[in-house]
## 1
Amino acid sequence: MSHNTFGHLFRVTTWGESHGAALGCVVDGCPPGIPLSEADIQPWLDRRRPGQGKFVTQRQEPDAVRILSGVFGDARTPGQVTTGTPISLMIENLDQRSRDYSEIAQAFRPGHADYAYFAKYGVRDYRGGGRQSARETAARVAAGAIARKVIPHVEIRAAVVQIGPHAVDPARMDWAETLNNPFWCPDAAMVAVWEEHLEKVRKAGSSTGAIVAVEALGVPAGWGAPLYGKLDAELAAGFMSINAAKGVEFGAGFAAAAFSGEENADEMRATRGKDGLDGPEFLANHAGGVMGGISTGQPVTARVAFKPTSSILTPRRTLNEAGEEIELRTKGRHDPCVGIRAVPVVEAMMACGLADAFLRHRAQTGGGAFRPGEPGRR
Amino acid sequence: MSHNTFGHLFRVTTWGESHGAALGCVVDGCPPGIPLSEADIQPWLDRRRPGQGKFVTQRQEPDAVRILSGVFGDARTPGQVTTGTPISLMIENLDQRSRDYSEIAQAFRPGHADYAYFAKYGVRDYRGGGRQSARETAARVAAGAIARKVIPHVEIRAAVVQIGPHAVDPARMDWAETLNNPFWCPDAAMVAVWEEHLEKVRKAGSSTGAIVAVEALGVPAGWGAPLYGKLDAELAAGFMSINAAKGVEFGAGFAAAAFSGEENADEMRATRGKDGLDGPEFLANHAGGVMGGISTGQPVTARVAFKPTSSILTPRRTLNEAGEEIELRTKGRHDPCVGIRAVPVVEAMMACGLADAFLRHRAQTGGGAFRPGEPGRR
Amino acid sequence: MSHNTFGHLFRVTTWGESHGAALGCVVDGCPPGIPLSEADIQPWLDRRRPGQGKFVTQRQEPDAVRILSGVFGDARTPGQVTTGTPISLMIENLDQRSRDYSEIAQAFRPGHADYAYFAKYGVRDYRGGGRQSARETAARVAAGAIARKVIPHVEIRAAVVQIGPHAVDPARMDWAETLNNPFWCPDAAMVAVWEEHLEKVRKAGSSTGAIVAVEALGVPAGWGAPLYGKLDAELAAGFMSINAAKGVEFGAGFAAAAFSGEENADEMRATRGKDGLDGPEFLANHAGGVMGGISTGQPVTARVAFKPTSSILTPRRTLNEAGEEIELRTKGRHDPCVGIRAVPVVEAMMACGLADAFLRHRAQTGGGAFRPGEPGRR
Amino acid sequence: MSHNTFGHLFRVTTWGESHGAALGCVVDGCPPGIPLSEADIQPWLDRRRPGQGKFVTQRQEPDAVRILSGVFGDARTPGQVTTGTPISLMIENLDQRSRDYSEIAQAFRPGHADYAYFAKYGVRDYRGGGRQSARETAARVAAGAIARKVIPHVEIRAAVVQIGPHAVDPARMDWAETLNNPFWCPDAAMVAVWEEHLEKVRKAGSSTGAIVAVEALGVPAGWGAPLYGKLDAELAAGFMSINAAKGVEFGAGFAAAAFSGEENADEMRATRGKDGLDGPEFLANHAGGVMGGISTGQPVTARVAFKPTSSILTPRRTLNEAGEEIELRTKGRHDPCVGIRAVPVVEAMMACGLADAFLRHRAQTGGGAFRPGEPGRR
């Protein structure tokens, strides 16, 4: 219900503005007994940290996370473990460059949420984007690091698969490649193309959109639920809640509209597990690992579209709070392609959504999944 | 939280299976004093009713809705008005054709949720799709009819804009045209193409996907909220909760990934209202009427992708509950293109989501929106 | 959040008015595979059914419950089991005696919610109490019957322990005795006293208050949670949501205010279970089975105070909707002591609250409880 | 849903342990434009601060609150106002006296939540009570200070009305008197009695229970809702969520059980407001300002029972984690009567509950209340 909370049982409430003292989140509902220290969270924050290349904002923030509650350790508890009580995470804002905000203090930047915030609240913190700043995603990434520990057998990975008009060739998709370049690009041949495109965009003071692909491996069958609590519906809300997201699709997604029923059906064959029980082997995954809102045991796959960063140097026509027509250029330290930095955030939202689905599934059914050859509940 | 509830303040809980005695929903949180009788709901149900053409399932259901609670009228209350208490709606299932379900009772139809339900619950009502039946959407449409009355100044309309590979030409888009053909097609020139395509699909016992476009006119600025309760995030969850939905996008959506920042910025000019106050006139609506999760006063526009109906006559490889490999043809009364019947359902989810956003906005701010030229809250 | 829903994972949404076509509820989140038919619910409804004695309202309702969804059975499923989808329950209103409501249609009966409803909604269904009727509790009792099956090892029992000024002697408390008299009185010696008191009250057209005691045996340690989701806080809300409830206490309750710390401490000794593990044996249960919001393995004990029925024959001063001062006698078929009929309702709220707590506990921890002698999570 | 969140629209999520780095809360859903700085919150924290007398714990904490987000001020915004985004509040723990916890690290203190936490989580932070410490209530008081600003026309006041066996004489109740003594005692004649009683208790290393009365003046008619979202049910949950609370009652409460219907009916007469409209004047308030779950415009009155502090010096029998029987004395800095310090906490929970009810009422109805003589919605 809360406007700044996501999740139902694994429940994350985020807070903070770009230029306030700090930002953070409270993770409530985490299972007890999970080893957790700052060292488990920091690496994920480091991955999303800006200031790491010329194509992301130059704001320099250490993004050092502190765990303020919810963990405990003593002589009998080597390291620390979660206690089942709320985990409060805080990241201080240090590099709040003191610049002159007088130009945008009363102007509505086109493509930004400035006007919408004004219309709703009548007041807004315009410094550095305020609540709407991409800095808020640090809290999501921190929460995602905890979520990953709730579902340790699930592997989550994301990549940028399109920047501007330049899409990765699915045939050359190599997840390992994402770590070899600053764009999370899974296609070695595309790196130079993107670099050239982004350099051009950056020099022009412009920006560009992107598409991020994400997948979760190791999700067992049975997570999620009909009908409003569908796994894909919940994940879609999570992805769409990321700044600048404009669309989300699962499996074949929008391409499925052009499919025939024969193409779309993910056929199944038997596969014999180590325990002698039969599980289905799917011959395709157009469903993206979710059918009827419930996971099938296949990889959960999704794609999220991000619009170009709204801050650009070219003057655009707009209004100010007085209702006067003005032209505005948006200066500052900004990403030419916000989609690049979204990669760890998309992963984090996947992790949080799946951890929540796992807990909900365990609540209703006790956990586990029935497999073909088992008697079911009849 | 509940798996079968959507909305937070305008709150709809649906129930029912395809072949049970009835289906329905409870609408809780509706404002009091709204005139409401069955006659306000029935027309919307009639629009989604199957059996109206050869391209939708031939199941014949009157879908007559009964209001069981939450309204009251007496001599001083001409007609009936909502009382603010929960409104229970029920639609009886009448045409539950008694056929032989023995073939699918233990088989997992590919592309259906059969296996996922079995894995999760160990038991499922396989008759006519059970809970997963498209019949469930009747409850959504009924709830949507009430939601429309909560926000009477908002006009909601949807259309099919793509069937299989055949997309409508945006330049020929004419909303009025949707009422002149059985496909909710807004492009007169496309009707014959779709008819031919669907006839071919139907004769082949196949099916096809579709894309539905929806827009809401008259949504004032200020509805929605950062950051998990974003208007587009909530609506996305609503759309994705519809059977067979595989993707959702707002405004420019996935196309925004290829945009430059200049193309994407929705510039603003002043427009003078009747009361002399300035409001922004947007020169484009790539944002789809939502920025930072909050409505801007522009039309809220979205598109939803639907996969092909999973029930097809061509045998597909699959498993049964015993883990045996089988081939399965899915007989029965099915839509070759489930996307067509989704049109009133997409509208209903838009209506429910907006009614909820309206109530939440009114709660936090008292309602209304600040306009340029007004002093705001400072 | 919803005004007419209780529970978080075992989630009950009730609907219906006294004189509408029907009333009922939707139970969402019930685990799958639980045998359930109308025959499992009806006996509990029969227990609360009015018309069974001269000290309860003479309205004659069969209160026959129908399960409209959420269960399934076939040849392989003897009887029916829950499917994990929402269970819709409906009870038709049959004995809506057509009487003249003109006197109260515009008058605010003192002690009733008439004025509060008018002030809030501006409209109300005044027939038979409308939404505020005690008939609504039938839906709770039906839901409670399902909740009991979710936690079959928990035994729940309630009794009336005070009617008017006449309280049961704790030393003579005998739960079995509650079935031997029409007052759920656990003290055989008190039955005649209450009978005489109630007869006097009834003849005077008056009414009287009561206190109901309830306890749940077999609740394992570990259910509930700090700090707002405390088991006793959640149960308190459930009990207070019953019509006419004015107070609730757990364990020693208000008497604990007069205790010293020594009296209040529930000391523990070791008790050796069948499996050789030590569990605590408590030497007292002033805590009422809940400490820090979490169950201790002791019986969960509570008491709920009910005010006298507000409908009485003695004229009372009040206003009508026009703001005029009037005197009003409340005629009709009413209980002189609504607390008597509350017994099965209190039990039902205990059952629903505990089923919800069980599912939430299972979600976060996997279920189970650590016992002294076990290593815990360290 | 979340275990550590209270409220639905005015939503408070608390976090922190007694001996962690800090504690705090996130207040989400607060209306925008409300002037708010630390100076608005600190006085309320100072009221609950321990170390102010010999009858409360001697822990010395400045309890200085910091607002980390959700407010903004600039040249045009004198001071700061809420922005409508989440307000993060933090209070550092400074006086975490490093003492030896080895005695209780593995022992279950009788009357404490030690065993329940162990049983549920298998791990617990035993230092200073951990999450269960009364220090957590500082976060509630801070949130309550904001809630009061959301409903500025409501005046909330609480008092201790019983300590041990010594109850205040209702006839001598004088709210102003509560500020003249360290016990929040509203009866000047009782102060010396309590002082003597507490001195005896303190010297004996014992403790004593208490009852706190609270009332809210200025709550308009119409807040709250049937049936689970009843105002009194929600407030009851809030009060019961406070440490050591064992019971709650509204209006006449448990005493209502002994009432006749005539005594219980709160009769009404007309009262003419300044605007010429008639509002009801109630001749009694046995209902405690709430009927049918909805406020009536009368003062909302409740009483909360607190058990004696569980930490006492007299050895009590108990177990340790190994399952061994031991005797335990609880040393440390503790309140002999935790009920005294509960006064500002009870007020805070009343404030938070009412602010939430106000926002929910405004959502559904637009705010306001119908008065006799007005046409209502018919």
Note: The mean pLDDT of chain A is 91.
## 2
Amino acid sequence: MNFRSDNEADAHPAIIEAVSKAFRAGPVHSYGADPWTQKVEHRLREIFEKPDLCAYPVATGTAANVLAIASCCPAWGAVYCHPASHIAVDEANAPQFFTGGAQLVPIDGPAGKIDRRKLEEALAQPVYGVVHHPQPAVVSVTQASECGAAYAPEEIAAISTAARRHGLKVHVDGARFANALAFVGCSPAELSWKAGVDVLSLGATKNGALGAEIVIFFESAAATEFEFRRKRGGHLFSKMRLLSSQLDAYFSDSLWLDNARHANQMARRLVAGLTPLPGISLLYPVDANEIFVVLPARMHDALQAAGAQYHPWPSDRPGERAFRLVTAFDTQPAEIDRFLAIAKSSV
Amino acid sequence: MNFRSDNEADAHPAIIEAVSKAFRAGPVHSYGADPWTQKVEHRLREIFEKPDLCAYPVATGTAANVLAIASCCPAWGAVYCHPASHIAVDEANAPQFFTGGAQLVPIDGPAGKIDRRKLEEALAQPVYGVVHHPQPAVVSVTQASECGAAYAPEEIAAISTAARRHGLKVHVDGARFANALAFVGCSPAELSWKAGVDVLSLGATKNGALGAEIVIFFESAAATEFEFRRKRGGHLFSKMRLLSSQLDAYFSDSLWLDNARHANQMARRLVAGLTPLPGISLLYPVDANEIFVVLPARMHDALQAAGAQYHPWPSDRPGERAFRLVTAFDTQPAEIDRFLAIAKSSV
Amino acid sequence: MNFRSDNEADAHPAIIEAVSKAFRAGPVHSYGADPWTQKVEHRLREIFEKPDLCAYPVATGTAANVLAIASCCPAWGAVYCHPASHIAVDEANAPQFFTGGAQLVPIDGPAGKIDRRKLEEALAQPVYGVVHHPQPAVVSVTQASECGAAYAPEEIAAISTAARRHGLKVHVDGARFANALAFVGCSPAELSWKAGVDVLSLGATKNGALGAEIVIFFESAAATEFEFRRKRGGHLFSKMRLLSSQLDAYFSDSLWLDNARHANQMARRLVAGLTPLPGISLLYPVDANEIFVVLPARMHDALQAAGAQYHPWPSDRPGERAFRLVTAFDTQPAEIDRFLAIAKSSV
Amino acid sequence: MNFRSDNEADAHPAIIEAVSKAFRAGPVHSYGADPWTQKVEHRLREIFEKPDLCAYPVATGTAANVLAIASCCPAWGAVYCHPASHIAVDEANAPQFFTGGAQLVPIDGPAGKIDRRKLEEALAQPVYGVVHHPQPAVVSVTQASECGAAYAPEEIAAISTAARRHGLKVHVDGARFANALAFVGCSPAELSWKAGVDVLSLGATKNGALGAEIVIFFESAAATEFEFRRKRGGHLFSKMRLLSSQLDAYFSDSLWLDNARHANQMARRLVAGLTPLPGISLLYPVDANEIFVVLPARMHDALQAAGAQYHPWPSDRPGERAFRLVTAFDTQPAEIDRFLAIAKSSV
């Protein structure tokens, strides 16, 4: 009953297998000139219906985010993001480091999602071309958000429209993009470039990989400097097959979506069992694989005693204790059911 | 007959196995709070006979080098290194990026090794505390050097003595430290902290891993900021077991030294077969697993025709063509012998 | 009738005279080893009753702020400041540049002043020592604030107490410190180090100088790296007397306070004349030399027609037009009176 | 008899006068929207016969150099410069700071001047577009060099041709450009853009100003980002007239060239008197206003005893003591003659 984080999970057997095989294949060219890296890019062009996209594997979500953002933001630029976003809260100033000092501007909104109107208001400030002010450059949205909510394609499009009106680029932190996509149910293209996204950090690590993410530029022109940025960030792998063999398996046979769908279903199973119970309330809608929930003290105690693992989460209302529970690609229905049984019996 | 680079090689089966097993072990804490990461640090304390060293896994050699150097160099500092060093030539300004702008000062010497006397001369300049001048902060040596030569413990100690006299720290880029150690034949401690090394980037990727390096601080006090630097560089893995399970296997049962010894032996077997042939000359002594050699045109053509792979290398003498050949942990004696047979038959 | 900004004003004759004289004094040592620079530091030690303070002239307010902040904030640090603060809004990401990427965290409050309770709440987040999160490092307050309000010594002390409880340093952007001091009426020490301020950017440019600011560290230990930071920022003057001769005159014979007092009085004279008029309302208390005021349309038109100059200012209430008027050390009572006469006649 | 440095000299009365007047002119727009700043740019367009050049005042030579270089060098770029150049030796890593980490590559040559053939050799390395290697971006030459030698227009052109062949930009550190120009005797255009220079840091501080330099882009397109870089570096003056009134006087009535010519003549008078004396030898040709000379011990002692001031300079030959003597716009012939009389009498 480990619901601490999807980054504590194992890797999917097919991905482990792919890595094992890749490293027994004999010598291959290094630094990405290997067959897996090429295959991944080609497959992503098909999956996203975008024959000229460029895709670059990196190892961590932070690397993916900050290299992507740095590619479209000058050192005197401003990046608009939710105050709860990973780039603002969980990356130890890596965005500022890689951009050479860009400013993060918090734009609030419910459930970790940027409020389009607040964004428009912020972008309407008369700062453009004025040398004193940080120059609006990028809007970064997290899909699914840090509160487990997914943006619909129309919501992304509305944000993109506001951004583009002022010349900004749109970045998506897609550490859990697969989970959002599985929830929304549209095509990958519809949830990305067709909705105005310029660059996507597409995660695999939290969804069954050992450690791999990929940065996708939907316009290849935007990517010219990326390889230099990746290298000088220390993020270019010599044995690139470590990353690309994972991604090759991940994007084959819909594994990425199957994994995400499973994790989402497990979250819904948990929600379905919990919400009827007294004293339970959800902080945010559960679109993806994260649940933010208020648990009564007795229930929490009973679950802890039984060995259930999950993190506390700040709650606004005094006296109330909230928690985050995360499901993963390999969460077992039986774990959920056992958790629910304990929860019920504590009532 | 692939002698292009040791980073084109497969991974060692024991390391592949360790990774596969680690990712089937069930949920573990993320970001390094897992059993493998702890084990690796403990094992290194034994191997290096230094109970208070601190060790941090990262994924690439560039990351290891620049995070290590940044930990002991202010933005207004100077880093003394060989003009052929990886940090000066092959890291796309990553050292300057991570230090906030340190200057690299080239100190020449034969076979890719810093000439101690030239270093002393450079360090004798009256720049200390003078606000205009970059402040001498770090000497970085590559062990084995980019020309395949190993520093003896006394050579490292002489450099350290010069460095410490002026308050500088000593960093070793040990991408091929195991190969150097296997050649020198002393203890790991004797080739590092006992010779005055402060921080070591210890490589595994080129020596049988899938992609893993580890930064070792021999004085734990020096490491306080390292974890912040690693995180803001995007180099902290959530599923850290990907790195630490590799390193755990690598440092078990002397695998790291066995691999290095084998690669070195294959290099020596190649040298032993080549040097008696007419028209052959070595550019540098072959201490580790890299051979820099002038090949007669007919021999080169014959080898190419037979499918041998290796890189050209700049030669100082006009009309002469030099090449780099690299052996690896999995180079087969039969490959060497076939290579030598072709070489001989071309004479 | 120029009330656009105090940085559009002339310089005070005594300061012009001091510069002229200094540059006819014959050769002096460069880079600050001149008599004026030494004198300024000594005088500040007396003025602030702090014999071990260190003081460094620079040319611009932005340079003073960001060099001061960078001296006490790591690259992974967070700087808490008002969302309207100059460092957040008007320095084109210079704070992030000089710190190597620190994050600015906005803490709101009335009249451009940080709300101590909101600060305490922000500082209570459990982020200390957690490698993912920007590390709280500095609180920066603007004195007088960008809305023309002054912090009382007790207000500064309350902020400092909150900051120090968590190990943060306190920086004051004192571009208009003299105006605040003239308003508050306490001693310079009471409004700075006795209230817990660690480092002060003390302005002269807006208060009668040609272009000079000075960074004051109240604990000399904090200043060790400052000179390197100033030099590598390109902010060390070879002919330092250009800055220090200005500052020498500025801090002599209470000129700095006389200038500030005059500017404040002119602002009060303006306020006293305006507030009785119908349709007038002040956005913020007028403590220093800046007035933020709603003017009726007819009054604004009449003033513009008569050649009065001042900037528009954003107003929250629809239909209302607000403006900023700034007085300076050399604003003439007659200008104020003429302005008021026009205003009155427009009613 | 102060020959320590031209930055220890007074300012020229006409420049002092211009500043004094500018700060009594009444209110003017800040941040460069004042009449002096516009006039300076217009005058430089005439002087350099280039109607579309853009010119930006800054306060220090380091600021001018590093803002100029950063404008044409990516963070992964390489800047080729003489090992004795100010940017390499005397700017505390400011070039690396402002470029985000560019590498300085030393190219040696006699008298502080880059050897064109060595430059060509360095630029011929096959590093272009290869992601591992710092990308050649800028050649920076110092005119006059740090050893007092001037490049002829043909020498600059030869370097520019080599640079442009590989797509690099050419920067001139012209802290003593006026002295070089006075020596060479050609037009400003011939010594700059007609010889292939892209951006020039043109100094005034060492040649009679209080503290002012100006960055000139000969192609306006290159300058688009400059104003953001200047602001975020803290180098935009609110009371810009402090800089531009100096520069206005400096470029009026040939003052800049008159000052330089005088300083050069004083240097030649010194050389003419010294070289016939026994034991005297010059380290470099004396083109501008700096003399590097070996003085016999007795002569040095006699000069010191008489109060002559100048700096020691490293000499290659053991037992020999060399010195640097710098003349300035206000050096008096009588000072030279007194110096020479003492020197002669010591023989």
Note: Chain C touches chain B through 17 residues (CB under 8 Å).
